[in-house]
Write a structure and sequence with these properties.
This protein is an alpha+beta fold and 416 residues long. The protein is 27% helix and 12% strand. It contains nine helices and ten strands. The strands form three sheets. It has a six-stranded antiparallel beta sheet with strand order 1-2-3-4-5-6, sandwiched between helices. Strands 7-8 form a two-stranded antiparallel ribbon. It has a two-stranded antiparallel ribbon with strand order 9-10. Strand 9 (216-221) and strand 10 (225-230) form a beta hairpin. The chain is globular. The termini are far apart.
């Protein structure tokens, strides 16, 4: 199931693979992914649905989707539209019938008209869990839910470093939805230049991008090669089938950052679990170099090293998405938050990931988190800071340190 490219065309690979990297077999001990009892947001909802505590609206497909999103606290304003056929339901996804994707900080929902609802929910220990509602039979009650094991070829492959994760791709689709060209694959994250993103996706809102791959399809013309043509939202499809007619630039940017974070964090979680098991609860000395590399990669990503440049005019995000995204922000003194947007030269005003407040991060082994905090502190200090973090001005560093100290549980006692 190519969920985020299967649920979404979506996922993020670290900048470079290292020769030190531990090979993870996620189905085997100490992980035993398939035997794990999921504790993700959707697993909890599934129990509530089965017990009758939560009732979903099965009157029609749109009402059902809206009720699923509401039950999962996933904002409708996060909607992204993708028309490349990179999904388990590829036979019905194309420019005439785009798929809608929605997300919050730990759950991703995909739906295509006349198709099924797909869900990826992030378990705090094992990462991506894959679920599918069967087709809605109007008036026939809630359709059966299955936990899918068909997604691993893509969602536990090279793009996710062989652990269950998220995928995003950028492609040039044909009218059938199949791909003619690939602009980026096996890589996700806020470092990817915007001109390489969005192929096979609709893009709306004030993005101010002069060159991009969004809203385009291709045709292979004999003797002339590939010819591209625009396919604006609603030009070939009925947007009335979706909850919104939009695929706004800001959810795209936030989603890209988020899946890059999740993939890096859960790859590190699997590696650490394996190393700690091999050391019977302690990290072997031979594993210290790999710990250092994992911590360095995470610290750089968390502090937005190499973030892709926005257009010189900045971007204009959908106000409803901004409101819903910031509903659960953790405020420090003066109302400052890691969810405050900039949108002029960068996505966030304070370049430190809000994803530090999620269970994905908080449940990481302490030995790894503390090492990441140490490397972050090296970049955030006022004097003799690590030059890798020179993109952060002194006042921004000070604000980040204060926000983390006031809002993030589990910081080491030495944190300043």
């Amino acid at each position: 199931m190519r969920f985020l490219s299967c649920l979404l065309p979506l996922i993020v690979l670290p900048a470079a693979l290292t020769a030190l990297e531990t090979k993870v077999a996620f189905r085997e001990a100490p992980h035993k992914y398939l035997q794990h009892e999921p504790q993700d947001r959707f697993a909890k909802l599934k129990k509530q649905i089965e017990s009758g505590e939560v009732r979903l609206d099965t009157s029609n497909d749109k009402a059902f989707l809206a009720s699923v999103l509401k039950a999962l606290d996933v904002p409708v304003s996060s909607q992204l539209l993708v028309f490349s056929a990179s999904s388990l339901q590829s036979e019905i996804i194309n420019p005439r019938n785009p798929r809608a994707l929605y997300f919050n900080e730990d759950t991703y929902v995909g739906w295509v008209p006349r198709g099924k609802v797909e869900i990826i929910a992030m378990d705090p220990e094992m990462g991506a869990m894959f679920y599918i509602f069967e087709r809605l039979n109007t008036g026939g009650g809630v359709p059966p839910i299955t936990r899918s094991d068909k997604c691993f070829n893509c969602h536990a492959g090279l793009a996710t470093r062989r652990v269950p994760g998220l995928i995003a791709e950028s492609l040039l689709p044909m009218l059938s939805g199949a791909s003619l060209e690939t602009y980026r694959r096996d890589e996700q994250g806020h470092h990817i230049p915007l001109e390489k993103r969005f192929g096979g996706w609709h893009l709306t809102g004030g993005h101010h991008l002069k060159t991009h791959h969004a809203n385009m399809m291709g045709t292979n013309v004999p003797g002339r090669g590939i010819e591209k043509s625009k396919v604006e939202p609603g030009q070939m499809s009925d947007l009335g089938q979706h909850l919104l007619p939009t695929s706004d630039i800001l959810p795209h940017l936030v989603h890209e950052h988020q899946i890059g974070f999740e993939n890096r964090v859960f790859h590190a979680a699997y590696v650490m679990r394996q190393l700690l098991a091999e050391g019977r609860g302690s990290l072997p000395m031979s594993a210290k170099p790999e710990l250092e590399e994992l911590a360095e990669e995470l610290a750089r990503y968390i502090l937005f090293v190499d973030e892709a440049k926005l257009p010189k005019e900045g971007v204009e995000g959908d106000t409803e998405f901004i409101r819903e995204f910031q509903r659960n922000k953790r405020e420090a003194a003066g109302g400052r938050s890691l969810k405050d947007f900039d949108l002029k030269t960068r996505i966030f005003k304070y370049r430190c990931s809000y994803m530090l407040h999620t269970e994905s991060w908080l449940r990481l082994p302490v030995v790894l988190k503390d090492r990441v905090y140490f490397k972050m502190a090296e970049g955030l200090r006022e004097q003799n800071a690590n030059p890798v973090y020179s993109h952060l001005a002194a006042d921004e560093k000070l604000a980040i340190r204060a926000i983390l100290k006031e809002t993030l549980p589990g910081l080491p006692s030495w944190w300043r």
